[in-house]
Structures
1.
Amino acid sequence: MVDRYIKFMIKLFITFLFCSISLNSFAQSDFIPLTTTDFDLKGKVKSATIQQYWQKDSLNFNEDGYLIDQTNTTQMSEDGFSSTEQSYFFYSENRIDSVVNYNFSGKDKEKFSIVLNEYNSENRISLHEMFFLKPERELFIREEYLYKNGNLSSVNKVSYPGEEFKSTKYYYYSPDSLMELEKIDSTWKDITIVVHPSENMRFVEYKDENSITRLTIVSQEERILGENWVDSNGLILRMFTIDDYHGCWGEGIFRYDENQFPESTVFKCHNSYESYKNDNGNVVQEEKYEYELDDFGNWIKKVILEKKESGEYKYKENGTVERNITYF
């Protein structure tokens, strides 16, 4: 459950931040392998190139469907800012042993950083290290994963952003750990609490009888900072968080078609958490998506239609995402 929690949080903050639907650019973990399904791809996909606006992702997979390298290129204009990043993933027994990251300066390719992972006898991550390679090899992040009774109990992290910084995350699984949170219904099961003492925050994961998981971010003062509802397939159904783009507390409601492709998104603004709970928010933006599919059922073109609160409130085209997909 913890691995799914980490993987989901990565996807959540990369993919949905109350702006137009973006690419899954560099949405990987350095020790949780990503597969074709994480990029909404079906079948024996060999490669996929995704183009939207000024951004292009190039993905390559092995025959087992695991991501083996990813290149992200951002080109703001023909004569303007351009950047390229590339990552290579090296596996053994379908686990990531190491990751090598490159940056491009013009046509020159430069090795930028390397990630090394170690695993315990149960094939679970035990040590995660990241090194910068320029101007010389230097440890930047070191994370030690500790387990108790088969569950992750804590993560000790040391980072070196100019000076040493230490932190520890604690994981709790007993429903008794939530007794102080009176807002939470006692019928919820499979509870995980991730505590960040240094950040004065906690992340709570729990599941109800309908297999819908809710992730709640709370501060030590029990002030709810965000809520997210996810179904058993890992699809985000609803999201509530501070929305800097619209200048309010924002709510996103996501719907999917029979292929689990995003079908529509509704964004609402709230002036308080109580407004969100009472469904009193104002709709400020809506999006819906139209797809063109290939013979394998993968979409190769997605048209984004948008309507906003300001101006004429009707759907207008607001971008196209195109994918070029090859197969084994």
2.
Amino acid sequence: MRPGLVVIGVAFLTLTVGTFASLYLPAAPGPSTSVHTFTGLPEPAPAKAAGSSPAIDPVNASATFLLTWRSTVDLNVSWPWGAGPSCGGGLPCAPFLQPLATWTNQSSGSWSFSGRLSGPLYLEWTNAGASGGSISFTLRQTITSGSGLAGVGGLLVDASLVILAAIGALALFLGVFLRAGVYRGPPRLVSRGPEDAEAIAAGGTAGATGPRTAPSSDGSGGPRRTPSAPPGKAPPS
């Protein structure tokens, strides 16, 4: 076993588990919602007359819209009306698009829409009757925004966690199953003495010209060689 690798592997795995728990285990915060309400107070709707509501300028964002209106007499109502050159009195000359909803000879109505509407918007009405009355309306715009990791950011985080886990598992595996003391250093060189020089000059035994070695610290080296004696001398004991 190699304790160093075991410690590194455990550290990487602990970091991976902790990061995963901090990102995914807590309850994800719910989406945030903002509501914008535009209200038109009761306004006169005289007999044999036409008009429109004050300008409505909703927030330029994708949202859910709910329009409700009510009058004291039957009216012809269209929605929306706006975004055109002014003809005087603040009223546009023509609608910027076809009405999304119309009501004929009614005293109330409602309309809903999911998407984006840009202002200014107007509620147009026509009173074709002989009696005057009043009209009021409310436009509610609900904007919902989600939360959480973005798609690309989530993929990068997941990939990083996988890499950390793989490194930690590999280090832990090697630390547990790799035996200590497998690697040994090279044998230690021993300097020559004067007798070695004499043996080489006299043409001693084969192999005397190589470096003398001593056993390594773990006993892997070979035995120390005894130099050959020059001619006419007995070899040292």
